[in-house]
Amino acid sequence: MRDALAGLPIPQRLLTALLLLLGALIAPHAANLNPLILAFFYTTMLWRLIAQRRPEVMPGRWLLLLLMFGALALVVFTTNVSDGRLAGTALLAVMLGLKLLELRARRDIHITIFLGFFLVLTQFLYNQSLWLAGYLFIGVMALMSIQVGLNRVNIELRLQLRNTLAMLAGALPLALVVFLLFPRLQSPLWGVSSSGASTGISEEMTLGNIGSLSRSNEIAFRVHFFDPAPDPSQRYWRGPVLWHTDGERWSAGIRPVRSLPANEGGDSSVDYEITLEPTGSYWLFGLDVVTGKPANTYLNGNFALVNNQPVHKRFTYRVTSDPDYRLLALSGSDHRRALQLPNRISTRVRELVAEWQAVTDPAQPLQLVQEALAYYREQPFVYTLSPGLLQGDPIDQFLFETRRGFCEHYAGSFALLMRLAGIPSRVVVGYQGGEKNPHAEHWVVRQSDAHAWTEVWLPKLGWWRIDPTAAVAPERIEQSINTALSGDSDRVIFRVDENGLARALWRNAAWLADAVDMGWHHWVVGFTAERQSSLLESVGLRDLEGLGLAIALLIGSALAITLVYLIAQIPRSQAQDPLPALWQRLLHKLQRAGVKAPPWHGPDTICHVAAEAFPDATDQLMAINRMYVQMRYGRSEDRQQIGALRKRINRLRLKR
User: Fold this and answer.
1) At 199, is the secondary structure helix, strand, or coil?
2) Catalytic entry in 467, 521, 522, 607
3) Residue 608 annotated as catalytic
4) Which of 44, 59, 528, 543 is deepest in the core (most CB within 10 A)?
């Protein structure tokens, strides 16, 4: 069957709207595609906009062929063709641009709209944030509205939007059923995506790098506890363990790659789920100490949790930890590594350790640990993000001169002092603390919570966590750092309840946005097979899988379609025709003036009778009669004409 509208010209308003809309939809790809690819597309879009007023500039067939070869060369030489996502997206962008240059019929616009839908889908290969999804949803609605308009002779924006919303409402129940019941992959649908890695913890620590990281208020990860949240003093999120030092830099040394089996936790086990932001590294984080690890991860010899591949996208995993679990093992090689010293140690540092050894029992190493903590507590040490530059021997200068530092200064110097005293020690880097989102069930750990602490090995106690920072600034364990105020302050300023209505409202809005973002990830982007099973279990369908899930999908789809059909059959009140009401208004005005108008008389007869009774109003009555008849019987009714008729009837004055 031939399309009756195919021969009609392209509506210029729809074409302009389509061109501008496609330009807006491809704009987010500025973060992914080479600028030359985007420049090619926007050039073709501008070219087609100019051709609306000057059709002679439309390219011919041979010029289009040359442009096609140039576009292919542009993709090959500006894009990493080994990356299927980038190459495919770039090819789609240039082909869509070329399609704009051959838009000559309505059929071409239909094809272009479908290419626009594919363009929207490619955005989710790179970014699945709620805000981008909302932006693209508006774009898809606009594309559908343009498509609706192409199937009408007369374009009416309000009718297009109403029909588009009606189609969306009809498709929504079926889409919801398919989303919830369609068999899921073990990884999210958009698992091929790759977000840019953000700055995070690394396996090296120099004096100042964690302090620099702590100036950032970006989110490191979010935590949902299935058990009561542990106290702040137990919220140490273990990351890389550092053994080797040259006095200024700490590193992991020879990486312990052996995998340890998961251990059963005790009565104090904590079960929780972490959603980690992309880091670009293998390190995962868990409460000290992880006893139950997720799939495709392992615990290395330091009980640090490591992923099998770098984390390039938001990653959710479930962990069990036991804060009372003791790490007792210390092999001979680990003992030697835990006592390694830098080549240069100042005399003052050695004398300080010797003083502690003189007043403590060598058989009780914990006494020396307490002496060292007392030194940090009693001397005028300052906990600050701006410790200044340390020259020469950094440890000596920090301990005896500047006494200003962040957590890496305290953890690194304390571990070195313990090694000088013959106590095995190492540095652990990770995060400490976290804030509860008041509008959700999860806790937020930020980059500003990055932390370093020390572990010392004590007989019968094993590896024991010592946080020398807490000796200088005990509030660090209870409160998060206020990054905005601490950067320019002499000391670290901790976050307290915000004063002032504006700050409180802003902070509350930020928490709400975080809750919405986490809900989007939890129920949409990260809706895996495990999440689907959990949802089905909550409604009593725990064993629904395989064939049963497929049958439930078919039944649910049939019910959704039936529901939409029944709703569509509900009688709707028709919009009242305004013409009869206006005509009745005219008749009432004539009757009050004394004109007898039987109901079976037509408008011509009534207006002629009224004109004979009121000759001065003849022109007005004839105009009203002409407008009413044209709209009532000529099918040319529109809102402007109805408004003009209403004004004429209201202004009609009948005087004898």
Assistant:
1) coil
2) 467
3) no
4) 44
